[in-house]
Amino acid sequence: MGKQRASWLSPPEVPQAPLPWKRVTVINIAGFLDFQAELVAGSLSSAGCTAHVAELTLPVLDVLRNNPSEFRAVNIARVLDLPENHRALVEELRLLLGSGEAMILPACLGLEENTLPALQQALNVPVKLLPTLPPSVPGMRLHNALRRRFQSLGGLIMPGDTVTGAQLERGSINALFTKNHREVPLRTRHVILASGSFFSGGLEADRQRVFEPIFGLDVEVPEDRATWSKPDFFTPQPWLQFGLKVNPRLQPCHQGEHTQNLYAIGSVLGGFDPIQQGCGAGVSMLTALFVAEQILVAAEACHEPA
């Protein structure tokens, strides 16, 4: 904790090294256990930046503070984002800023898009946020932004529904069936499978086999059952690299034949260890981008909407 980490993409409110300031105030929220301001300050100091730690005690947070299980980043943000709490927040942070040229807080505000810009304008210094343990405020804000964008383009989200099967003809899926819609088919030109691995039910296993439960797709698994796992719990486990057999376009196989309009992305794919290699999020994002490009190219070639 408190160390710098490499990142492919970061929200603009997350501080990025090297910091352009010589003096930074790191804010800790009294009673908040998911952020260690001293560790952050220590890391900044070792990088040549003078870091001062201060504690925010804002009384409006006392109700949450009295219940440690509720004193989490998202709940704090719902309080601090309220317009009626803006003035008190600004006044206390202004007192805590001291000689700092910038301020770093745990990401416990900003579910509403205007909160952080208004805070920076009032304090007249850059305010940066460090993500906390999941669910994180920046992650939720990004999720909401992506959902709004998807829906604005005509996308439909069906919360709580589950795909139970598909109609496969001549190597293509022309209909999906879900738990809530039962016999009513959902027609589509392209299908993207992002069901995850074992932890989310995208792959399942018994003592004899590993299988993909929705479409019955082929899974890359060693034949020798004894090689699936290792006795030492802390050793990289081979089963974490199990996943679907796909071609270079990330189209999975069904009974040895590649599907024409079905693509797989994320951890349902095999060949990598998301825990040992720390690449789970990267694989998910890049395979999603790659598949989106494949669909757009295919649609353009057929002169049809994606």
From TrEMBL:
SUPFAM superfamilies, alphabetized: FAD/NAD(P)-binding domain
UniProt-listed Enzyme Commission number(s): 1.1.5.3
First-tier enzyme category under EC: oxidoreductase
Residue span, FAD-dependent oxidoreductase 2 FAD-binding domain: 1-283
GO CC annotation: glycerol-3-phosphate dehydrogenase (FAD) complex
Keyword field: Flavoprotein, FMN, Oxidoreductase
Record-level Gene Ontology MF annotations: glycerol-3-phosphate dehydrogenase (quinone) activity
InterPro entries: FAD-dep_OxRdtase_2_FAD-bd (IPR003953), FAD/NAD-bd_sf (IPR036188), G3P_DH_GlpB_su (IPR009158)
Top-level lineage group: Bacteria
NCBIfam families: glycerol3P_GlpB, PRK05329.1-2
Protein name: Anaerobic glycerol-3-phosphate dehydrogenase subunit B
Species of origin: Cedecea lapagei
Taxonomic path: Bacteria, Pseudomonadati, Pseudomonadota, Gammaproteobacteria, Enterobacterales
The gene coding this protein: glpB_1
